[in-house]
What we know:
By secondary structure, the protein is an alpha/beta fold. The protein has ten helices and ten strands.
Amino acid sequence: MGSLAKMKDNAIPAQSVPKAPVVIVCAADDHYSLPLAVMLESLSSHASLSDRIDVHIVDCGISGQARQRINSQARPNLHFHWRSSIRSPDIGDPFWGHVSGATYERLIIEKYLPDDTTFALWLDCDLLVLDDITTLFQRSLNGHTMLAVRDPFIPCVSSPFGVHNWRELGLTSKQPYFNAGVMLIDMNHWRASEIASRAGLYIQRYGKKVHFNDQEALNAVIGANWTPLNDRWNYSANPFHAKRQNLRGNKPAIIHFAGRVKPWDLPDLGASQNLYFQYLDKTSWHGTRPGRSAGNFLLSWYVRSNLRKLTYWLENLHLRLRHLLGI
Protein backbone atom coordinates (compact mmCIF):
# COMPACT_ATOMS: atom_id res chain seq x y z
CA MET A 1 0.00 0.00 0.00
CA GLY A 2 2.83 2.34 0.89
CA SER A 3 4.63 1.65 -2.38
CA LEU A 4 1.43 2.38 -4.31
CA ALA A 5 1.04 5.71 -2.53
CA LYS A 6 4.67 6.50 -3.34
CA MET A 7 4.11 5.75 -7.00
CA LYS A 8 1.14 8.13 -7.05
CA ASP A 9 3.18 10.86 -5.37
CA ASN A 10 5.91 10.51 -7.99
CA ALA A 11 3.52 10.37 -10.95
CA ILE A 12 3.83 13.15 -13.53
CA PRO A 13 0.87 15.54 -13.21
CA ALA A 14 -1.37 15.43 -16.28
CA GLN A 15 -0.97 19.16 -16.89
CA SER A 16 2.83 18.82 -17.22
CA VAL A 17 2.57 16.58 -20.27
CA PRO A 18 3.66 18.79 -23.20
CA LYS A 19 1.01 19.67 -25.76
CA ALA A 20 1.50 18.74 -29.38
CA PRO A 21 2.90 21.66 -31.37
CA VAL A 22 0.65 23.77 -33.57
CA VAL A 23 1.71 22.97 -37.14
CA ILE A 24 1.49 25.62 -39.87
CA VAL A 25 2.56 25.34 -43.50
CA CYS A 26 3.10 28.10 -46.07
CA ALA A 27 5.07 28.53 -49.30
CA ALA A 28 6.70 31.46 -51.04
CA ASP A 29 9.16 32.48 -53.74
CA ASP A 30 11.44 35.51 -53.45
CA HIS A 31 8.77 37.92 -54.69
CA TYR A 32 6.60 36.91 -51.74
CA SER A 33 9.32 37.02 -49.07
CA LEU A 34 8.11 40.40 -47.76
CA PRO A 35 4.42 39.39 -47.45
CA LEU A 36 5.56 36.09 -45.90
CA ALA A 37 7.46 38.06 -43.25
CA VAL A 38 4.44 40.27 -42.54
CA MET A 39 2.09 37.31 -42.29
CA LEU A 40 4.42 35.59 -39.82
CA GLU A 41 4.83 38.76 -37.77
CA SER A 42 1.08 39.26 -37.49
CA LEU A 43 0.66 35.58 -36.58
CA SER A 44 3.33 35.81 -33.88
CA SER A 45 1.85 39.02 -32.45
CA HIS A 46 -1.44 37.29 -31.61
CA ALA A 47 -0.49 33.66 -30.98
CA SER A 48 -0.75 32.10 -27.55
CA LEU A 49 2.61 32.01 -25.78
CA SER A 50 1.67 28.70 -24.16
CA ASP A 51 1.71 26.86 -27.49
CA ARG A 52 4.73 25.79 -29.47
CA ILE A 53 4.19 26.77 -33.11
CA ASP A 54 6.12 24.96 -35.82
CA VAL A 55 5.98 26.80 -39.14
CA HIS A 56 7.08 24.74 -42.13
CA ILE A 57 8.07 27.16 -44.90
CA VAL A 58 8.30 25.70 -48.40
CA ASP A 59 11.13 27.57 -50.13
CA CYS A 60 10.29 28.09 -53.80
CA GLY A 61 13.27 30.33 -54.51
CA ILE A 62 13.67 32.69 -51.55
CA SER A 63 17.07 34.38 -51.52
CA GLY A 64 19.54 33.63 -48.74
CA GLN A 65 19.35 37.23 -47.52
CA ALA A 66 15.55 37.21 -47.32
CA ARG A 67 15.68 33.87 -45.53
CA GLN A 68 17.99 35.29 -42.87
CA ARG A 69 15.70 38.28 -42.39
CA ILE A 70 12.71 36.01 -41.88
CA ASN A 71 14.66 33.79 -39.48
CA SER A 72 15.24 36.83 -37.28
CA GLN A 73 11.49 36.79 -36.55
CA ALA A 74 11.65 33.44 -34.72
CA ARG A 75 10.44 33.54 -31.12
CA PRO A 76 10.79 31.14 -28.15
CA ASN A 77 7.42 29.63 -29.09
CA LEU A 78 7.70 30.20 -32.87
CA HIS A 79 10.00 27.87 -34.78
CA PHE A 80 10.73 27.92 -38.51
CA HIS A 81 11.47 24.77 -40.50
CA TRP A 82 12.62 25.41 -44.06
CA ARG A 83 11.63 22.86 -46.70
CA SER A 84 12.97 22.90 -50.25
CA SER A 85 10.27 22.61 -52.86
CA ILE A 86 9.87 19.10 -54.27
CA ARG A 87 6.91 19.92 -56.48
CA SER A 88 6.75 17.66 -59.50
CA PRO A 89 7.37 19.29 -62.91
CA ASP A 90 4.32 17.36 -64.11
CA ILE A 91 2.15 20.00 -62.46
CA GLY A 92 4.32 22.91 -63.55
CA ASP A 93 3.26 26.54 -63.16
CA PRO A 94 -0.29 27.93 -63.33
CA PHE A 95 -1.58 28.19 -66.88
CA TRP A 96 -2.70 31.79 -66.41
CA GLY A 97 -3.00 34.63 -63.89
CA HIS A 98 -0.67 36.44 -61.55
CA VAL A 99 0.09 33.66 -59.04
CA SER A 100 3.34 31.71 -58.95
CA GLY A 101 3.92 27.98 -58.91
CA ALA A 102 4.22 28.17 -55.11
CA THR A 103 0.42 27.98 -54.98
CA TYR A 104 0.62 24.29 -55.96
CA GLU A 105 2.70 23.39 -52.90
CA ARG A 106 -0.43 23.02 -50.78
CA LEU A 107 -1.43 20.03 -52.91
CA ILE A 108 1.53 18.07 -51.55
CA ILE A 109 1.44 19.46 -48.01
CA GLU A 110 1.93 15.98 -46.49
CA LYS A 111 5.36 15.66 -48.12
CA TYR A 112 6.67 18.56 -46.04
CA LEU A 113 5.44 17.31 -42.67
CA PRO A 114 6.45 14.54 -40.25
CA ASP A 115 4.42 11.38 -40.82
CA ASP A 116 2.85 11.61 -37.36
CA THR A 117 1.36 15.09 -37.97
CA THR A 118 -2.37 14.87 -37.29
CA PHE A 119 -3.51 18.43 -37.98
CA ALA A 120 -1.90 21.19 -40.02
CA LEU A 121 -2.97 24.71 -40.92
CA TRP A 122 -2.19 25.97 -44.40
CA LEU A 123 -1.82 29.77 -44.64
CA ASP A 124 -1.29 31.82 -47.79
CA CYS A 125 1.31 34.58 -47.57
CA ASP A 126 -1.02 37.44 -48.52
CA LEU A 127 -2.76 37.32 -45.15
CA LEU A 128 -2.83 39.50 -42.07
CA VAL A 129 -3.50 37.43 -38.93
CA LEU A 130 -5.36 39.43 -36.27
CA ASP A 131 -6.36 36.77 -33.73
CA ASP A 132 -4.87 33.78 -31.95
CA ILE A 133 -4.48 31.21 -34.71
CA THR A 134 -3.91 28.40 -32.23
CA THR A 135 -7.60 28.46 -31.25
CA LEU A 136 -8.49 27.00 -34.65
CA PHE A 137 -6.89 23.73 -33.55
CA GLN A 138 -9.59 23.41 -30.89
CA ARG A 139 -12.35 23.32 -33.52
CA SER A 140 -14.15 20.13 -34.51
CA LEU A 141 -13.85 19.06 -38.13
CA ASN A 142 -17.01 16.95 -37.78
CA GLY A 143 -15.29 13.97 -39.35
CA HIS A 144 -14.41 15.94 -42.49
CA THR A 145 -11.05 16.43 -44.16
CA MET A 146 -10.73 20.11 -43.28
CA LEU A 147 -12.09 23.45 -42.10
CA ALA A 148 -12.20 26.37 -44.52
CA VAL A 149 -14.16 29.53 -45.33
CA ARG A 150 -16.61 29.68 -48.20
CA ASP A 151 -15.21 31.78 -51.03
CA PRO A 152 -17.13 35.08 -51.37
CA PHE A 153 -16.20 35.47 -55.05
CA ILE A 154 -17.06 31.87 -55.99
CA PRO A 155 -19.79 30.81 -53.54
CA CYS A 156 -20.73 27.53 -55.26
CA VAL A 157 -18.98 24.94 -57.42
CA SER A 158 -21.40 25.89 -60.23
CA SER A 159 -20.54 29.62 -60.00
CA PRO A 160 -18.43 31.33 -62.66
CA PHE A 161 -14.78 30.29 -62.05
CA GLY A 162 -16.02 27.38 -59.91
CA VAL A 163 -15.53 23.70 -60.78
CA HIS A 164 -16.17 23.53 -64.51
CA ASN A 165 -17.14 19.82 -64.54
CA TRP A 166 -19.10 19.73 -61.27
CA ARG A 167 -21.92 17.71 -62.84
CA GLU A 168 -19.54 15.02 -64.05
CA LEU A 169 -18.11 14.78 -60.54
CA GLY A 170 -21.56 14.24 -59.04
CA LEU A 171 -21.61 17.54 -57.14
CA THR A 172 -24.80 19.55 -56.65
CA SER A 173 -25.04 23.03 -58.13
CA LYS A 174 -25.39 24.57 -54.65
CA GLN A 175 -22.40 22.76 -53.18
CA PRO A 176 -20.36 25.51 -51.42
CA TYR A 177 -16.90 26.28 -52.81
CA PHE A 178 -14.13 27.07 -50.31
CA ASN A 179 -11.21 29.45 -50.48
CA ALA A 180 -7.94 27.54 -50.08
CA GLY A 181 -5.98 30.39 -48.48
CA VAL A 182 -6.78 29.20 -44.94
CA MET A 183 -7.30 25.46 -44.39
CA LEU A 184 -7.12 23.45 -41.16
CA ILE A 185 -6.47 19.92 -42.43
CA ASP A 186 -6.93 16.53 -40.81
CA MET A 187 -3.78 14.99 -42.24
CA ASN A 188 -4.93 11.42 -41.64
CA HIS A 189 -8.06 12.04 -43.73
CA TRP A 190 -6.00 13.91 -46.33
CA ARG A 191 -3.57 11.02 -46.77
CA ALA A 192 -6.25 8.31 -46.69
CA SER A 193 -8.26 10.15 -49.35
CA GLU A 194 -5.14 10.60 -51.53
CA ILE A 195 -5.97 14.26 -52.01
CA ALA A 196 -2.54 15.13 -53.40
CA SER A 197 -2.50 12.58 -56.22
CA ARG A 198 -6.17 13.09 -57.12
CA ALA A 199 -5.84 16.89 -57.26
CA GLY A 200 -2.67 16.62 -59.32
CA LEU A 201 -4.38 14.30 -61.79
CA TYR A 202 -7.30 16.71 -62.01
CA ILE A 203 -5.00 19.56 -63.03
CA GLN A 204 -3.14 17.39 -65.54
CA ARG A 205 -6.38 16.09 -67.04
CA TYR A 206 -8.21 19.40 -67.45
CA GLY A 207 -5.22 21.70 -67.93
CA LYS A 208 -6.21 25.11 -69.25
CA LYS A 209 -9.87 24.48 -68.46
CA VAL A 210 -9.04 24.80 -64.76
CA HIS A 211 -9.92 28.25 -63.45
CA PHE A 212 -8.24 28.93 -60.10
CA ASN A 213 -5.51 26.34 -60.27
CA ASP A 214 -5.06 24.15 -57.17
CA GLN A 215 -8.05 25.75 -55.44
CA GLU A 216 -10.41 24.38 -58.07
CA ALA A 217 -8.66 21.01 -57.97
CA LEU A 218 -9.11 20.78 -54.19
CA ASN A 219 -12.78 21.73 -54.41
CA ALA A 220 -13.24 19.12 -57.13
CA VAL A 221 -11.75 16.21 -55.18
CA ILE A 222 -12.86 17.20 -51.65
CA GLY A 223 -16.39 18.11 -52.69
CA ALA A 224 -18.63 18.28 -49.62
CA ASN A 225 -16.06 16.74 -47.27
CA TRP A 226 -15.22 19.99 -45.47
CA THR A 227 -16.67 22.03 -42.59
CA PRO A 228 -17.29 25.79 -43.01
CA LEU A 229 -15.51 28.25 -40.76
CA ASN A 230 -16.87 31.65 -39.76
CA ASP A 231 -16.05 34.21 -42.47
CA ARG A 232 -13.91 36.17 -40.00
CA TRP A 233 -11.15 33.56 -40.43
CA ASN A 234 -10.67 34.46 -44.10
CA TYR A 235 -12.14 37.91 -44.61
CA SER A 236 -11.57 39.47 -48.00
CA ALA A 237 -9.82 42.84 -48.32
CA ASN A 238 -11.75 43.30 -51.57
CA PRO A 239 -14.88 45.31 -50.60
CA PHE A 240 -16.93 43.75 -53.41
CA HIS A 241 -16.27 40.30 -51.99
CA ALA A 242 -16.38 41.29 -48.31
CA LYS A 243 -19.95 42.56 -48.62
CA ARG A 244 -21.01 38.96 -49.29
CA GLN A 245 -19.42 37.79 -46.03
CA ASN A 246 -20.88 37.79 -42.52
CA LEU A 247 -18.69 38.55 -39.52
CA ARG A 248 -21.62 37.91 -37.15
CA GLY A 249 -20.73 40.97 -35.09
CA ASN A 250 -17.04 40.03 -34.77
CA LYS A 251 -13.89 41.63 -36.11
CA PRO A 252 -11.87 39.89 -38.83
CA ALA A 253 -9.47 37.28 -37.46
CA ILE A 254 -7.65 37.07 -40.81
CA ILE A 255 -7.70 39.61 -43.64
CA HIS A 256 -6.94 38.08 -47.03
CA PHE A 257 -5.50 40.32 -49.76
CA ALA A 258 -6.57 37.93 -52.50
CA GLY A 259 -6.51 39.05 -56.13
CA ARG A 260 -4.20 41.43 -57.95
CA VAL A 261 -4.50 44.40 -55.58
CA LYS A 262 -1.76 43.90 -52.99
CA PRO A 263 -0.92 46.30 -50.14
CA TRP A 264 2.82 46.02 -50.82
CA ASP A 265 2.39 46.97 -54.50
CA LEU A 266 0.03 49.98 -54.57
CA PRO A 267 0.00 53.08 -52.33
CA ASP A 268 -2.93 54.75 -50.57
CA LEU A 269 -5.32 51.81 -50.38
CA GLY A 270 -6.90 52.76 -47.08
CA ALA A 271 -7.36 51.34 -43.58
CA SER A 272 -6.48 47.70 -44.30
CA GLN A 273 -3.21 48.75 -45.89
CA ASN A 274 -2.38 51.08 -43.00
CA LEU A 275 -2.89 48.15 -40.63
CA TYR A 276 -0.70 46.01 -42.89
CA PHE A 277 2.11 48.57 -42.63
CA GLN A 278 1.96 48.43 -38.82
CA TYR A 279 3.04 44.80 -38.96
CA LEU A 280 5.42 45.31 -41.88
CA ASP A 281 7.27 47.91 -39.80
CA LYS A 282 7.90 45.29 -37.10
CA THR A 283 9.93 43.24 -39.61
CA SER A 284 13.35 43.93 -41.11
CA TRP A 285 11.50 45.40 -44.11
CA HIS A 286 10.31 48.29 -41.91
CA GLY A 287 9.74 51.52 -43.81
CA THR A 288 9.25 49.73 -47.15
CA ARG A 289 6.40 51.28 -49.10
CA PRO A 290 4.99 50.89 -52.64
CA GLY A 291 6.35 53.17 -55.33
CA ARG A 292 4.44 56.31 -56.25
CA SER A 293 4.64 56.23 -60.03
CA ALA A 294 1.96 57.84 -62.17
CA GLY A 295 0.62 54.40 -63.08
CA ASN A 296 0.42 53.31 -59.44
CA PHE A 297 -1.27 56.57 -58.47
CA LEU A 298 -3.97 56.18 -61.13
CA LEU A 299 -4.57 52.52 -60.26
CA SER A 300 -4.82 53.31 -56.53
CA TRP A 301 -7.28 56.10 -57.29
CA TYR A 302 -9.39 53.74 -59.38
CA VAL A 303 -9.40 51.00 -56.71
CA ARG A 304 -10.74 53.48 -54.11
CA SER A 305 -13.12 55.39 -56.39
CA ASN A 306 -16.87 55.14 -56.89
CA LEU A 307 -16.14 54.54 -60.56
CA ARG A 308 -15.04 51.02 -59.69
CA LYS A 309 -18.52 50.26 -58.41
CA LEU A 310 -19.81 50.84 -61.94
CA THR A 311 -17.03 49.04 -63.78
CA TYR A 312 -16.29 46.08 -61.52
CA TRP A 313 -18.19 43.80 -63.90
CA LEU A 314 -15.61 44.73 -66.54
CA GLU A 315 -12.84 43.51 -64.25
CA ASN A 316 -14.55 40.13 -64.03
CA LEU A 317 -15.03 40.09 -67.80
CA HIS A 318 -11.34 40.87 -68.19
CA LEU A 319 -10.56 38.01 -65.82
CA ARG A 320 -12.57 35.62 -67.98
CA LEU A 321 -10.78 36.79 -71.13
CA ARG A 322 -7.39 36.33 -69.50
CA HIS A 323 -8.31 32.80 -68.51
CA LEU A 324 -9.55 32.09 -72.04
CA LEU A 325 -6.33 33.42 -73.55
CA GLY A 326 -4.11 31.92 -70.85
CA ILE A 327 -2.44 35.20 -69.84
